[in-house]
Amino acid sequence: MKILNMFIKYMAYYSDTELTAFTDWIENNTKFELYQDLKVLHIGTYLKEVWTHQLQVERFEIEIIDQSLLNVNVTKKKLMDTGINISIGQMEYTNLIYESYTFDRVFSKIAFQLQSAEQQIESLNEASRVLKPTGIHYILVNEQSLISSLYQLMNEFSNEFNIIDPYQKHQIDIDQQLKMLYEQIDVTEYEANHLIRDVKQCMSLFLSYEDENYINYIVKRHLGKQFNEFLEMKFKTQGPIILKRKFRLFKCKNKKNQLKQF
Questions:
Q1: Full-model pTM
Q2: How far is CA 148 from the centre of its chain?
């Protein structure tokens, strides 16, 4: 399965690309209802922004799971470096090993659009299944990825490419699916700008996503040199490129009694 959430690998080298502070947005716009002794499950890459201002993480019983072994190992190292002791392991989002009604809070940070439609629905079902009836499910949905913005550069380079954005290919109506699982849903939106200053940063982003469009249209057609020259000229004449990301954060409460099949 294609590795999810590869942007963290890119940001490890280019942490200054984000112009809009995501952590500040989390703090100012979202009131996480976290209390001592809660059982918390993180599905997907560790969402450090949630815990930035939770200085006593040990007050919570937290477990982190991710489908990608690479993400698990990267997250383990990050947690060790910060001195935080949290359980983390590899697990399929569509087949959680936990019993129903186990967790008080569930945080989902999953690239849903890189799953099939069936997998997206089953991932939402599973997260709801392990949540207690009085629990809260927070879901961060990446609605516009940086790679989507980069496709505009590829189209400028050649209008002959038939680029299919994987973030749009299998995207389900998450709003509608969540309404079938929860009585109360609150949504906040976040848009961020990222500054790409040179060709090296741009190419690192393509590679960090292991993007199929870049591989099929640039690498396999041996157009790497020409594409690099095109980017060099673009940076020289226009300066840094601003790429956009868009998120929505769902806060879901009052789980419905029956998990519907849809």
A1: 0.73
A2: 14
